[in-house]
Design goal:
heterodimer, A: 144 residues, mainly alpha, 6 helices, elongated, B: 355 residues, alpha/beta, eight-stranded mixed sheet, 12 strands
Chain lengths: 144, 355
């Protein structure tokens, strides 16, 4: 409930400036990406003790994750801009209702976004690579 | 105005509005207790079998029409079927005069990570069916399979056709490659040789995040806006209890046994082998055409996890005179807890079993 309250407040702020919209995205999706981010933290914690193969793999994964996040943020920003253009009256008169409209519009657009083949492939690549790296980290370092 | 100032400017009324709802919900927080009286009749390594009827009725001969075994999915827990007194599919089935059995999976241990689906079916569903046959002197048992449990029930019925009297798959995926199946699209490119490591099971929390990611705003934000709005209405009634019971259920996410999960994703989601007729479980062919029992296929028209088209595809694999379906205008979870579904589905199931 308090998370929804914060998300709503971020929404109100994001109506003022487009840059703040990214904070709104991060506030909502921090939960969704928590697992991936925690994997990256684990990698960073282990990498200094490991060999070149692991360092290279982890570097590759982190680049992909950054690209993935940037691509998502661009999509989020563009969807939010469209929403603001379409709903100026509602935003002015009833911001709570506008927020509700926004969540619905976003989920519909998001479904189209995540169903694109290149997005599915990218996401799977990150998951598969994290699995591979995790296996490498559990091996004795002499095998690197 | 700086960002902290802006936040403070918005803070008061909004914070009060949400805080009030949060306080009401917190007051309704309690451990889940079954809404319907039940007893454990089998307690095995992989599952528990519950009987929802009074002790003296268990082990008595009853008509085969009146006994049903529910096979639940491994994802989340079966408590959703008996969530609270206002929302219990099991209680409603019982009110139809049915003796209800529920097979609930236990959280997998590491030593079970190498068991495949066939082993699981033989050591769980088949054990329950034998127990019920013997307890009530029945030759065949009715199965009600829920979601992934419906897939297990279909496979079990195909493997042991003579043991199943009638079969009710509920919100069950059959064709895993329909256009609207987002989970299937995501699963298509995952490589389980890289993802799974020997001796590990699959994190239930990770799966829960994947389900949440199908409707992120609706499931993370919008549902709280809706409940806050409704809690502030005088007719809110037991809404906060039901909402908190649902929240607890969503957060209870047992791990998945690794080999079962691997087979489920590769054979069903990636290869669509059940629907294509090419399914092999531990080397044994499992075909829907082997099913001899009448089928009553129940699906949700607004299902975002199992598209209705995926469930309806069962009609293509089963002879017409053996097959009926039943659509409910609700969502995947709404099938178990919505008043719309509870008002008609238990009655429709009882009618089908007694036809």
């Amino acid at each position: 409930m308090r998370f929804a309250s914060v998300a709503y407040q971020y929404f109100l702020i994001a109506l003022q400036t487009d840059e703040d919209c990214i904070d709104q995205a991060r506030s909502v999706f921090s939960q969704q990406f928590e697992w991936i981010l925690s994997q990256v933290s684990d990698i960073e914690a282990h990498v200094p003790e490991r060999g070149q193969a692991v360092v290279q793999k982890s570097h590759e994964i982190q680049i992909r994750i950054c690209d993935f996040a940037e691509q998502f943020e661009r999509f989020y920003l563009s969807t939010f801009k469209t929403f603001k253009q379409q709903q100026t009256m509602l935003i002015e008169n009833d911001p709570m209702q506008a927020f509700s409209q926004w969540t619905q519009m976003f989920d519909n657009e998001y479904l189209f976004f995540i169903r694109q083949e290149h997005v599915c492939k990218n996401y799977a690549w990150i998951m598969n690579a994290l699995g591979e790296l995790s296996a490498m980290l559990s091996l004795p370092s002499s095998l690197d | 105005m700086s960002k902290p100032d802006l936040l403070r400017a918005f803070n008061n009324p909004i914070e009060q509005y949400f805080e009030q709802a949060a306080t009401m919900l917190a007051a309704s927080q309690k451990e889940w207790q079954p809404a319907t009286a039940r007893q454990i009749v089998l307690d095995c390594a992989l599952f528990r079998l519950y009987c929802y009827s009074s002790a003296h009725k268990h082990s008595m001969p009853v008509s085969g029409d009146d006994v049903v075994l529910i096979v639940y999915a491994m994802v989340n827990t079966a408590s959703i079927l008996d969530l609270c007194p206002q929302s219990s599919m099991i209680e409603r089935l019982q009110q139809q005069g049915l003796s209800v059995y529920l097979m609930e999976w236990k959280a997998p241990q590491l030593e079970q990570s190498c068991f495949g689906i066939k082993v699981y079916l033989e050591q769980s569903v088949d054990v329950c069916v034998q127990h019920i046959q013997s307890a009530h002197q029945l030759e065949q048992v009715n199965l009600l399979g829920v979601c992934q449990g419906g897939v297990f029930a279909l496979c079990y019925t195909a493997l042991f056709p003579s043991k199943v009297r009638k079969l009710v798959p509920m919100v069950t995926p059959v064709n895993f490659h329909t256009e609207q199946d987002t989970l299937s699209l995501w699963a298509r490119y995952l490589d389980f040789e890289k993802l799974l490591h020997q001796g590990e099971n699959i994190s239930g929390a990770l799966l829960a995040q994947m389900f949440l990611a199908l409707k992120p705003m609706t499931l993370s934000v919008q549902k709280y806006l809706d409940v806050a709005d409704n809690l502030n209405k005088p007719e809110a009634g037991p809404l906060s209890e039901k909402f908190m019971a649902m929240e607890r259920w969503i957060q209870t996410t047992p791990d998945q046994p690794a080999q079962v999960f691997r087979e489920f994703v590769t054979l069903f989601y990636q290869q669509n082998a059940l629907y294509q007729g090419s399914l092999l479980l531990s080397g044994k062919a499992v075909t829907l055409q082997s099913i001899q029992s009448p089928i009553f296929n129940i699906y949700a028209q607004q299902d975002h996890l199992v598209p209705p088209e995926s469930s309806m595809a069962l009609a293509h694999a089963i002879p017409e005179n053996q097959y009926q379906d039943y659509a409910v205008n609700t969502g995947h979870i709404g099938m178990f807890v919505s008043q719309k579904s509870l008002a008609c589905v238990p009655d429709a199931i009882a009618c089908f079993l007694r036809q």
